[in-house]
Write a structure and sequence with these properties.
The complex is a heterodimer. Chain A is α/β, with parallel strands linked by helices. In chain A, strands 1-4-5-6-7-10-11-12 form an eight-stranded parallel barrel, surrounded by seven helices. In chain A, a hairpin with a 4-residue loop joins strand 8 and strand 9. The longest helix of chain A has 12 residues. Chain A is globular. The two termini of chain A are 18 Å apart. In chain A, 53% of the residues are buried. Chain B is mainly beta. In chain B, the strands form four sheets. A four-stranded antiparallel sheet of chain B has the order 6-9-10-11, with no helix packed on it. In chain B, strands 3-4-8 form a three-stranded mixed sheet, with no helix packed on it. In chain B, a hairpin with a 2-residue loop joins strand 1 and strand 2. The two termini of chain B are 12 Å apart. Classes of the chains: A alpha/beta, B mainly beta. Chains A and B meet through helix 5 of A and strand 5, strand 7, strand 9 and helix 1 of B.
Chain lengths: 254, 144
Amino acid sequence: MSLARRIIPCLDIDGDRVVKGVNFVGLRDAGDPAKLAARYNAEGADELVVLDIAASRDQRPTFLETIRRVAAELAIPLTAGGGIRSAEDARSVLRAGADKITLNTAAVARPELISETALEFGAQAVVLAIDAKRAGDQWTVMVRGGREPANRDAIAWAKEGVALGAGEILATSMDRDGTQSGFDTALTAAISSAVSVPVIASGGAKLPAHFAEIFTNGRADAALAASIFHDQIQPIRELKEFLSARGIPVRLPC
Amino acid sequence: MIVNCARPWSTPSVAAFRSWAFAWGSRHFYAASDEAPALAGLQLLPGRVRSLPPVVKLPHMGWNRLLFKCKSSLLEGVAADSYFYFAHTYAAIDQREETVATCSYGTEFVAVLEKENMFAVQFHPEKSGEAGAQVLRNFLRLCA
């Protein structure tokens, strides 16, 4: 008996639509969030992530309404993030129907935000999202949707975030995101070895073999992808059957 | 009524007492919990809720299976290999007669308990897909 490795589709949200870009730019429309959520719920996704990529104050009510519409379709956990700057922001996202929040840029600017939200909502509800870009033999943290370097080492930041109360790390490789060339195994393994909480690998997924690799050598507890699921390049059931056949514990949909 | 309050002490659960029902942390049933040591539990059950051992990644986050211990009204019609969604660090480790199913993560802990008209689960039935829906249907039938 063991904990199943999770497969997590991610919806990047701009207003009330799902969008997808390559290396965080070149966005195109990828569908209705609630419709995609219902499909993933039925196909055996283990969790769903929705990220407000615009993360602007003006669009906040639209994003909260999107969370409500998505949550109504799900019998699996929902994680939501993008633009959460305070415990108050976190509360509105959780009240809209999310089970967990992700913190990114605002936590880099003010790390206490992690402990504030963890104390109020529990560590299990606080996911620290780290956008990491390779710099020599290390990874540097990027913020503001990957546009600005934060002058922080990604591994050190993951450790600090967990010490402050983050219950999970969502590690996105900026180098791999949108490239479909496979997850960044070295980055994920380095973070997973450094922290005591579960790690979600993100960025670069295409083939079932990429998932098998990240769950074994990458030591990931969960793997996140967007376009390969949205575009139906990779059905979730087939992916899970592939992993199961290789001895990786997954929850097979009935 | 199902309430899933997002508080640090809210180990999710479903509970029923005679004709009324609520969802609350299973730790509330016990005498005490290490998650909030200053607060006493309802003491409906003796014992203490403790942290899972840090030999595994914590929180215990994700889908896991149950070990059925005895006949359960709450788990009726639930396949033995079903997965349920867990998101917690603390659990009741000591098993007693009311334990009808356990889960293993770092150690074996109480996942489902039933005692007379009292029911509690450690996982989130409302986030556990079809298996969770079956538990909720059973619960509603037991409350009726």
